[in-house]
Write a structure and sequence with these properties.
Rossmann fold, 5-stranded parallel β-sheet, alpha/beta, 2 domains, 20 helices, homodimer
């Protein structure tokens, strides 16, 4: 895999001086075209062995193009905020919006490779992380990103020579610490691990590009050309046709589904309600303060048809919690900034730290509900969303988060009653709009989308809890109790 | 995930009798349309819990459609021929050609799930196998296949009821052995493992369809409908646009590559040649008979420009081997039968058994060489082939195969000399055609394709061996010696 980069490529300084201005000009032009179209983001990964010119190349690319629209970011040791969240969180934060270029110096590859080389990570875990990376990059590409992965290589000899040169020059001696030499001593293992990483992640949609890093002029031109060609190729606008996924199964033939077989008829007296609510809220309050929750995040989401009582259920849950502990994030239509990012970006940004909770009032499931029903995204997009969402929730769970998902189910009759009541009550009138009535007309389509969603995303890692809300009082108690039960189980209490 | 299938779906017999003829008619019509177009194959997987009606459904589908164009296949215990090859081999054999439907009863999912439930397989290994399945199905879809995955589910209660019913009827009692009851005792673990398998493999391009298996009429109509809708959806011909992959890196800027930096100038005297060849052939002969090779396959492939001497090198290698040990498979243009299958199919079919060798004279690398250069496949197809090929070779290696890949490199001048010589020698004239001259004109394109190939597929698992063949004699010795060296290393000798 690295054979070609070990031949020893170089070009003359004079050639470089002749070629560089043209390349620079072309790159700048491509960058402006990208910015103007603003139809896709560009993610450039800069990885490779020590001393192979990664930093120099990042600097050059920044110099060649307009740095205002490039975000170059290095990933070092984890910050406190990063340590408290799933591994991929910090990379989500660094993703560029459409029209922009991010150059990620060190990336999601660095840590898995280093941990493996240092023997702190077993092969199975290493491969699992590479697989996660494949999924992540595949999602980026499916969301439209151009992913350019540059790997700067040096042969053992070339690396030794390079480290010596750096060490002997007072201006660069600081760059060669004991760490570099220690890593150099493990050159063979390091390259072996890198080879496996590159092999497993050099996919058709996001292939690695290996560049010989031994000659500064050569690697600079080579990296610039790779980026330029990738930009031009994509700006050229070629699309390949792809086959549509098979459809989801038809609606149940007997018309029975998880929503219409639910028992909506139970009811509670006011008095009973007060007593039970107080009891469950007390439990929930204690449990969210449990010491085992200090290093775990809590992710709660509420979905449901209009007027199903999401807001009032959320208030009953939060009433039991410390205001510093939780945050409620209402999800409306995406902002411009959010629209310029992959779909899940706007949910990743709100992921809570360990020891705190975020309650999403509507959530990432909008993709397979409203976006599917209203045709806001293509079939292929919401079809792949089930898988991406399961993967996302798995990442949360692996980071220790307690994930609770509520579907508040209201019957069609009860919704009508509440809509009418809202219209008749002056202080509730703001809660009902023409859109609510329009959505109601699409009830069967929404019901279909909801049942598909429940079937495809209710996993043992993050199961859905479906609660009938025709009796609001009972529903609220069930919400608070289920939250308490889930934490109780998670804390082993 | 199974909640919806546990509601207890059923339909009345009268409804079934009314609906079945129409469904049957529509399925048959779709089948004929598929057969006529013959543009894609259909792979139907039938999996699920014991007693959920998998067998009955397969029988029904066969009855409803024209069974001449359906290949229903059950996978039981491994045959001897299957045990001697990589796990996926038997599934490759069962793939349907374009226009046909294969119904796989039990499939690549069965063994990973059973092994995991029985505790004979660790979680990491289980996940690794699921990941392989994802890659495999993704390849199938990319190659055009329609993959319909049916999962027949029963709740614990429903399964118990069903097993009792089967056991109490003398006609079906044979179907409920101790094995079924033993598996039933592990119902919860089984369903847990299945949930993980379905979650990890329910992708956007090949989603699972879960069907409640408790009512025979319901499950029959449901399965038929799923298949029908999938067929109609695809025959409808909708295509979604997909983004092109980024291009491979441009040619090395200094023009230096693995081929033109090779030393072609070395030469050997005839006498030296005879002596050394005899020695290496003797070694190779002994080593292929090594007892550690009895349970390992050997896969050898030769690629090279025209007239590079593939044939003569192969003859020198085989001269040292037992004729019962090896088989030479020359790869020419694909046959009609092969063209109706995914690209790698025609190579999988020749995979040697343990204890034997296959020598491919040209190989699966045609995809990234001639097919790329001549435009026989789309850019996206050969771009993903690097990854698919690496995965293929990894499967061979994991099955214990010794994989040896030779690139026989000839210089442009020497090729010209040999072409002319062939034209001038009556008994060699058949070896040179107009096509050879045409290929020669495209030398730079081929050289580019070869160097990309070497870079992307020379892995530690299956490295390329590049041998300069301007001196034929030396080349032959290097081929035989490298074969011997590789076996020696593999057998730990």
């Amino acid at each position: 895999m690295f054979e070609s980069a070990e031949i020893g490529h170089r070009i003359k300084k004079s050639v470089y001086q002749r070629e560089e201005p043209a390349l620079r000009q072309a790159l700048l032009q491509a960058q402006y075209e990208l910015l103007e179209n603003a139809t896709f983001p560009v993610v450039v990964l800069v990885n490779g062995v020590d001393g192979a010119g990664k930093g120099e190349t990042v600097n050059l690319l920044n110099e060649w193009m307009d740095p205002r629209h490039i975000r170059a970011q290095a990933f070092g040791a984890l910050s406190e905020a990063e340590r408290d969240r799933p591994e991929m969180w910090r990379f989500w934060q660094a993703l560029p919006p459409k029209g922009h270029i991010a150059i990620l110096f060190g990336s999601w590859y660095t840590d898995p490779i280093i941990e493996r080389v240092m023997g702190r990570q077993k092969r199975g875990q290493f491969r699992r992380r590479l697989e996660r990376i494949r999924h992540f990059e595949r999602m980026l590409v499916a969301e439209g990103a151009l992913v350019v992965k540059l790997w700067f290589h040096l042969s053992r000899r070339a690396q030794k020579k390079r480290l010596r040169e750096l060490a002997s020059d007072p201006k660069t001696a600081w760059r060669v610490s004991k760490g570099e030499w220690r890593r150099f001593a493990h050159y063979e293992e390091f390259v072996g691990v890198c080879e496996e990483a590159l092999r497993e992640t050099s996919t058709g949609e996001a292939p690695w590009q290996i560049i010989d890093g031994s000659d500064p002029e050569y690697r600079a031109l080579a990296a610039g050309r790779v980026l330029l060609e990738a930009l031009q190729h994509r700006l050229g606008g070629a699309h390949c046709p792809v086959l549509p996924p098979p459809p989801l199964p038809p609606e149940p033939l007997d018309g029975r589904n998880l929503l219409n077989t639910l028992d909506y008829g139970r009811a509670l007296t006011r008095e009973d309600y007060r007593r039970r609510l107080a009891k469950q809220q007390a439990r929930l309050g204690m449990l969210t303060r449990h010491k085992r929750m200090h290093d775990r995040a809590m992710v709660i989401l509420f979905e449901g048809m209009d007027a199903a009582g999401k807001g009032s259920a959320i208030r009953r849950a939060t009433a039991a919690m410390d205001a510093r502990y939780y945050r409620v994030v209402p999800i409306a239509a995406p902002t411009d900034e959010e629209r310029a990012q992959p779909y899940l970006w706007r949910f990743w940004r709100h992921i809570p730290r360990h020891g705190s909770a975020v309650i999403y009032d509507r959530s990432w499931y909008g993709r397979v509900l409203v976006e599917r029903v209203e045709g806001y995204c293509a079939e292929g997009d919401w079809m792949r969303a089930y898988d991406e969402i399961n993967d996302f929730e798995q990442q949360l769970a692996e980071d220790g988060a307690v994930v609770v998902k509520f579907w508040l189910a209201i019957s069609q009759d009860e919704q009508l009653r509440r809509f009418r009541q809202r219209e008749a009550t002056p202080y509730k009138r703001f809660k009902i709009t023409a859109e609510d009535w329009r959505n109601r007309e699409k009830w069967p389509l929404y019901e279909r989308a909801v049942t598909d969603m429940l079937e495809r995303t209710s996993t043992s890692i993050a199961p859905w809890r479906v609660i009938g809300t025709d009796d609001k009082l009972l529903a609220r108690i069930e919400v608070v109790r289920h939250l308490a039960d889930t934490i109780e189980q998670a804390t082993g209490g």
